[in-house]
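Field: COMPLEX_INPUT
Field: COMPONENT_COUNT = two
Field: RESIDUE_TOTAL = 545
Field: MODE = joint
Values follow.
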Amino acid sequence: MQIFVDKKPSLTVNDSVVRKVLGIYPEELLESRKFFDAAFRTGGFEFKDLQAEADTILIPWQLFLLEEAKLDAELKRIEDLRLEKVSEKLIVKRKGYGDITSKRILDRLIRSQNYLIRNGTFEVNDYCGSLKGKSISQAAKQITTHFEVNASSFRRGSKRDALAYLIEKIENKQINVCQGVLDSNKILPVLDNSRSVYKNTSGFAIKDDRVPFIFIPSEINPDEREGRQILTLVYLIALVGLDEYNFVLRKDFKTQLLTAKGIENLAYNIASEFLLPWSVTAGYRGTQISEALRDFLSSKYQLSPTAVVTILRKRRVISSFEEYSALLPDPPPPGKSKSEGGRTPSIERSVRKFLGKLAYEVLNGDIRSKKTGAVRAQYIIFGSPRKRAFFMYRKNLGL
Amino acid sequence: MRIIDNNALNYVVDNRIKLSGTFCTTPDVQEEFEVKYEGGLPKGVQNIWDDPQFDKVGYLKNYADMLNKYGDKSFYNMRGFGDISIIALLKTQKGTRKVQLPGLEDGFVVITTDVQLTKHIQREFCDTGDVFDSSIQVVDHVIYFN
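Field: COMPLEX_OUTPUT
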């Protein structure tokens, strides 16, 4: 493929190099973008157009200039980092489920975590693996005790309040909680098929013995309301406690929860026990479960109605499949993306949400003390240099 | 030709130094500089890409060569490519030394404190004994502007 500068031929790059660079995020189908599609067909492109396109897809244009062997080494480095942090299962599209973990989000958070570990001062996190060997009820109690969760405080307000409460408690104990953000601050890019990629990205945990990261989709999946996010969060906390990073809570979690085996089943049971104790549901055994009761439990225990019904079915409080199906609520109308209408939050608020409290605080401290360079800070915050946005970010925070 | 890197540009602005004559910099350096300082380059500093006589075709080739030779750590550490772009600029000027460009007869001064950049320049230019190469100086910006 020929690169032109002001219509004069300059460099030649192999088509295979271009394909490999675009293959960093295979789920985004970047080859089908107008620019690259035309480049493959015509055999070339203008350098300034490559720069503009690279700026849009947030992949450094310099990668396209690498010799193939060098590029392979760089791509291997990226892949090794991913595998070090999450199970191979999570970064491969699983047939039959359509689950995709956005590699773009994964890479961003791995970078952020690596930065945090190298530049922060954190002790080994004794929560990691501490649930191994415990019974379900012991493990649920351990979560309550370790994260200092007060059940009344957690259950008092709305689901939104409960989620915020839980995130705060978790982050106080050195687990960084990152949330998907999709607003006009463009912390994550929104390309042609981004929305469907993000919607199919489940929550996941990234391993570290000091500061594990947990990602919950939040805004990037508008169908995942607060009740569902609470369940995802606690499920992932259980996995971290079991020192297991191979699992996600899939879109259709009902089937997953009812058929899970082994570690997956254990993590569900711990999460369910923490959120809706067995002692509560045991009292309803043998009674007719109504929609009103379902909604009451949903409201009181900060779970979605679907999760309540599924847990009751799993515990055989709801004994027949017909009763279970009848109690499942109608699917809610498709959630509106938070980016559609409404005020855009401040850029620092979006960054705080995506990076998580611990990474946000360490990075800002380093920007303030000039311990980290501006380019590097932008890669962590935005995924690439963004002068104007970074300028506003620093101005708003007085950095 | 006087070539100035990002740290030197920051020094000029932070110390309100009034530049006399023309200094050159590269697109990558300007990009890094403008992260901190809005409003463009200081007076007297020109982005070489804006020079209509600059050999952009040659520059891109040299940039790719230098990137493949020295650029590994930049991707991994998420650093910019300012140093790569400066060596590419020097290489490009070497390629056009027969063309009379303003300041060419006076040699090249690279104003930087970047240890890595200095090492790369030494490796690429200063050990070969070529006439062009011996006319390259690397100067610390504090020394240069004082």
